[in-house]
Amino acid sequence: MIKPFFPPDEATRLASLRKLNILDTPAEERFDRITRLAKQFFGVSIALISLIDTDRQWFKSRQGLTACETSRDISFCGHTILGDEALVVEDARQDVRFQDNLLVTGEPHIRFYAGYPILAPDGNKIGTLCIIDQASRKMSAGDLRALQDFAGLVE
Predict the structure, then answer these.
(1) CA angle 85-103-107, nearest 5°?
(2) Pairing of strands 69-71, 56-63
(3) Cβ atoms of residues 109 and 134 within 8 Å
(4) Roughly how many angstroms between the first and final C-alpha of the chain, as a whole number?
(5) What architecture is domain 10-154?
(6) pLDDT class for 1, splitting at 50, 70, 90?
(7) DSSP label at 99?
């Protein structure tokens, strides 16, 4: 497993996230509606809005998963915020970053992951909209555009 690196602007990114005052707040229908639609649209078992804090990823909205957070060290989303585009892992068992990750070898047995960075109003990447499944799969160019659109709705 390869832990996600911290982005060069980590202090600014965290300040941007904290400024939103959204961490550890109750579920909100406006976000749950997006994850429900994403889960159904892509036909996956899990859809999340994940916010990347200092040492955890906290789920503002979750469909198909009971955990409300996980360690940032084992997060797929921690890798996603390092880029500007979607991160797609077709089969986590075949990806050196994730093949021995506890989320792959144990519950929820992640095989497929696709996440798109969510930006704060100031442009900092604060988290992701992601979809997860227990079966490997591919995404088309249209699927990637739809994932980006779902992330845009979260913003």
Answers:
(1) 135
(2) antiparallel
(3) yes
(4) 30
(5) 2-Layer Sandwich (3.30)
(6) confident
(7) T
Contact 139, 114 (CB under 8 A): yes
Determine contact, residues 43/137, Cβ cutoff 8 Å.
Answer: no
User: In whole angstroms, what separates CA 19 from the centre of its chain?
Assistant: 20
Domain limits of the chain? Answer: 10-154
- Given a contact cutoff of 8 angstroms between Cβ atoms, the answer to whether 44 and 131 are in contact is yes
Task: Tell me how far CA of residue 15 lies from CA of 11, 114, 135, in angstroms.
Answer: 6, 26, 36
CB 48 within 8 A of CB 61: yes
Helix, strand, or coil (residue 38): helix
pLDDT, tens digit, 9 for 90 and up, residues 17-50: 999 999 999 999 999 999 999 999 999 999 999 9
Name the helix (H) or strand (E) containing 148: helix 141-154
Does the reported pTM lie above 0.85? yes
Closest CA to 86 of 43, 143, 7, 4: 143
